[in-house]
Amino acid sequence: MEKLDYPDGSVAVSTPRLENITKLALVPSKQRIKPTKLPMTIGKLELIIKINELPNNVETNKDNWKTFELDCDGRVVSVTVKPKIWKKLEDAAANYPMWVAAIGGKMGESTSNGFVLSEPNIQVFEKKPKEPKPEAGQ
Fold first, then answer.
1. Could you give the count of Cα atoms lying within 13 Å of 103 in the half-sphere of its Cβ?
2. Which run of H or E residues covers position 55?
3. Beta pairing, strands 66-72 & 59-60
4. Counting C-beta atoms within 10 Å of the first and last residue's C-beta, which end of the chain has fewer, N or C?
5. Distance (Å, rounded) from C-alpha 56 to C-alpha 105?
6. Using an 8 Å Cβ cutoff, are 50 and 105 in contact?
7. How far apart are CA 108 and CA 114, in angstroms?
8. Along the 138 residues of the chain, how does pLDDT read in single tens digits?
């Protein structure tokens, strides 16, 4: 527990536990403060990044895993996948004239300009062109 003393004799106390939210208030040093703990709902953060072209900045490591980076609205996401998963992207690029891949995963380590996508998985879908709508007068 952290205690801060102020020149006027007030004291601020907070609890540095991540699982609890603590309200911080200034009170005279003669009074004690009891932090209010609000219950937190557990959530799961999952990301989905959609691409429609094969990444061109691909590096292969010694185990034949592929690493590539994606620019997502100015944040660089680094992705490392197994050869079998990378083959899904290559097959889509070779077999479908239009396709989209959904790369899902969890937010991993932060980097200087983005983050690493941990536990990545890829789903590839063929994208069919929309047919023009017939005019209502015909």
1. 26
2. none
3. antiparallel
4. C
5. 21
6. no
7. 10
8. 555 555 666 555 555 554 455 555 555 555 655 666 778 888 888 999 999 999 988 999 989 999 999 999 999 999 999 999 999 999 999 999 999 999 999 999 999 999 999 999 999 999 888 887 777 655
Q: What do you get for the CA distance between the two ends of the chain, in Å?
A: 76
Contact 55, 40 (CB under 8 A): no
Place of tokens 């209010």: 36
37 dihedral zone (left: phi>0; alpha: psi -120 to 50; beta): beta
Say if strands 37-38 and 21-22 run parallel, antiparallel, or are unpaired.
antiparallel
Close Cβ partners of 92 (under 8 Å, ≥ 6 residues apart)? 99, 101, 124, 126
The pTM for the full model equals 0.63
Return the sign of the alpha-carbon dihedral for residues 77, 78, 81, 83.
Answer: positive
